[in-house]
């Protein structure tokens, strides 16, 4: 079936006249979220040693390249095609990767009543714009993982991993949570099974506004699994791995905060009052988390650090991501300050537990992502325990967090082990010399 025939076969509700304000806002949000991955490259690059900074930044840029290509080809189709074509998904886990393969169908239009209509999938924005927005989420999620395995992994193996992991883990989880799958608000979702009413509709539904499970628990758990399988850097526990460029870290954190408004407020998919509330909640939680992290440093180490401030910013952004549309500003402050404290304490555990999470992906993204996802059951203004409601929302949030942990952990382990024959690690000599020279034949700085 050619493209025109495919589009003409789409259900009538898939065509509509987009709202220009919403469309403009989501295009801008997509650009903001795309900026987050180069921002992450600065953040991670600054935290790395000088002999590894280029490789660290290249891992983020490499993810932009590979994930953008596969998302256009089959990622969007696996995540969301059923909402446009009307086809059934596969067991509520993923949509048909071939339904909108290549995404050409989304560029088609049809004439209805003398007006040109575009494919919208029932949204107020064209599906091409929705694809652009969701593509940037896939990119940043994969790039986040790289910080856990910094300074020791072959660039070629990393690129292969990005494609496999996105296809096997990210696209299905995205569909399950946001695309009408088993963890979504759809009536066939698991919340309906747990707490369904007599008419089959869920009384409570999982809340993941912008990516607590899909992005942060997902990336954090993947990073932990890779760390355990790939192993530690040379000298871990004996050598001080200090950030080589703290201004890079601060710049990266600032740009991440800036881009995160597209991440969170853009997830409303409309330029409306809820997007404004999300903006406020994102800022409130992030500022409070920075204070929480610095308070831990002040009490524990007697010195609040700039790296701690930057890390606190990221922890707050992570924690508020799933909750930003469900909380009040005061609730966001409470969620944020606890996120900063928890993440700061969690980062210190890696030395005690002996796993080499190079740039604290587990401590920040996994821990803060888990807290933000579960805390919705406490702080959500309409269903949260602290607002006089029962435990149902909290139970739902705990279950989806646990599901994401198991789903991601098992599948990431399978992928990591399958890639072992390809070779994960650079040689010991190459690691000691510096992975920039061995992998890219470059150095970031000229030393006398």
Automatic annotation (TrEMBL):
Where in the cell is the protein located?
Cell membrane; Membrane
PROSITE patterns in the record: AMMONIUM_TRANSP
Task: Kindly give the Pfam families that the UniProt entry links to this protein.
Answer: Ammonium_transp (PF00909)
Q: Where are the transmembrane segments?
A: 24-44, 56-74, 129-150, 157-178, 209-231, 243-263, 275-295, 307-324, 330-349, 361-380, 400-419
NCBIfam families reported for this sequence: amt
* Family membership noted in the UniProt record: Belongs to the ammonia transporter channel (TC 1.A.11.2) family.
Q: Which gene encodes it?
A: amtB
Q: List keywords of the entry alphabetically.
A: Ammonia transport, Membrane, Transmembrane, Transmembrane helix, Transport
InterPro entries in the record: Ammonium/urea_transptr, Ammonium_transpt, Ammonium_transpt_CS, NH4_transpt_AmtB-like_dom
GO molecular function terms listed in the Swiss-Prot or TrEMBL record: ammonium channel activity
Q: Which GO terms describe its cellular component?
A: plasma membrane
List the protein's name.
Ammonium transporter
User: What is the topology of this protein in the membrane according to its UniProt annotation?
Assistant: Multi-pass membrane protein
Ammonium transporter AmtB-like domain: which residues? Answer: 24-445
